[in-house]
Amino acid sequence: MEEGDFTKARYMLFPRNVLVGHGVIDLVPSICKDFKLCGTGLLVTGSKTRKVAGDPIRENLVKNGYDIHIIDTDEATRENLEKVEQTAREVKATFLLGVGGGSKIDLAKMAAKDLNIEFLSIPTSASHDGIASGRASIKNNSVPLSLDARVPLGVIADTNVIVKAPYRLLAAGCADVISNSTALKDWEFARRMRNEEFSRSAYELANYTAQTIIDNADLIRPNMEESVWIAIRPIIISGISMSVAGSSRPTSGSEHMFSHSLDVIAPGKALHGEQCGVGCIMMMYLHGGDWVRIRTALQKIGAPTSAKELGISNEKVIEALCTAHTIRKDRFTILGNLGLTPEAAENIATITKVI
Fold first, then answer.
1. Are residues 82 and 205 part of one domain?
2. Is 70 exceeded by the pLDDT of residue 4?
3. Which H/E stretch holds residue 118?
4. Is the pLDDT of residue 12 over 80?
5. What mean pLDDT, rounded, does the chain reach?
6. Where a domain ends, among 162, 183, 212?
7. N or C: fewer beta carbons within 10 Å in the chain?
8. Residues 54, 99: contact at Cβ < 8 Å?
9. Same domain (yes/no): 171, 270
10. What percent of the chain has pLDDT over 90?
11. Separation CA 321–CA 280 (nearest Å)
């Protein structure tokens, strides 16, 4: 290689400020001022999260001289995204605030990208690792699409707010991060088999988050703010690992493909993180890894480990296993290009006690 021939480059965007702890929601106005956000803001929330955090945040911002509008929305669908973007245009919003669970933050980060404005991520629950990432899951005709979105300018995670959300959501967020364990094995597999681009830094971050949740599974319990404190930082860092990698590779592999397949076959039955956790058990078995350790950690946290606990039939799980390889044909995983036969899928699910 001649001097000057090296042309490799990567653009990495991270949240500029991550604020985690008790009562930090009261600091939203000062964070906005620190970032020099001014003018009109649109707060994207839902009917339940509006009462918990949306209205108090708006009142606090208005007291500090901001013009804040609110839109109540629901699932992260193309239709709802268009509504958020149309409302933002109508009120001439100069920044967005995503206040709520994963779907509200996904809508805010996607709208922020489309409108080319900044947004703050203010989670009221922690059901998956998208709190701090530049990826959004938007449903198009009931099919979830993983899309490039805006990285939040800042993340404000109030443990006192998140602990009041149903514990199932936090357990699902922990399961989502635990599932990095197999996503990373898939990434290593693709590097060896396909010479796929690989980031050691992103790998280490995502691995750290999964191992931290697994190692502290005994300490993650309902109605304990300290449990939120233990879990929320790995959940946020897991999202940041995607920015380092420039893709969702460190946090999304065959276990996510299984989850997305379930979204199509049995929509609305279980949470994303719950499905990824169960998928992780089976994919770890396929990789020849310690699937029992994954299953035990999920059980300690209180996340599902079986089809019954997901509320999904054994037949649907087998079908999802057999079709998972078709979800993202651009992503090489342990499932390969041909996927599993029904007999192999049933055998895997039976051995790992998923069915």
1. no
2. no
3. strand 118-123
4. no
5. 94
6. 162
7. N
8. yes
9. yes
10. 85
11. 12
Angle at which helix 291-301 crosses helix 167-178, to 10 degrees, equals: 160
Whether residues 341 and 211 share a domain: the answer is yes
Structure tokens at 46: 């839902």
CATH of the domain at 99: 3.40.50.1970
- Tokens 């998140």, residue located: 162
Residue ranges in the chain assigned as alpha helix (H):
28-34, 47-49, 55-63, 78-90, 102-115, 159-162, 167-178, 180-194, 200-215, 225-245, 254-265, 272-286, 291-301, 307-310, 314-323, 342-351
Rounded to two decimals, the pTM is 0.92
Asked whether the beta carbons of 137 and 76 are under 8 A apart, the reply is: yes
Indicate the residue type of 340.
L
pLDDT digits 0-9 by tens, 277-310: 999 999 999 999 999 999 999 999 999 999 999 9
Cα(50)–Cα(5) distance, rounded to whole angstroms? Answer: 54
What letter represents residue 324's amino acid? A
DSSP 265: H
Please name the residue that has the structure tokens 């404000």. 156
For the cut 90, the answer to whether the pLDDT of residue 135 exceeds it is no
**Same domain (yes/no): 105, 197:** no
166 residue type, one letter: P
Same-domain pairing of 198 and 310: yes
Task: Provide the domain limits for residue 200.
Answer: 167-351
Of 281, 274, 300, 276, the C-alpha closest to 217 is 300
- C-beta of residue 239 within 8 angstroms of C-beta of residue 132: yes
Q: Kindly state whether residues 120 and 152 are assigned to the same domain.
A: yes
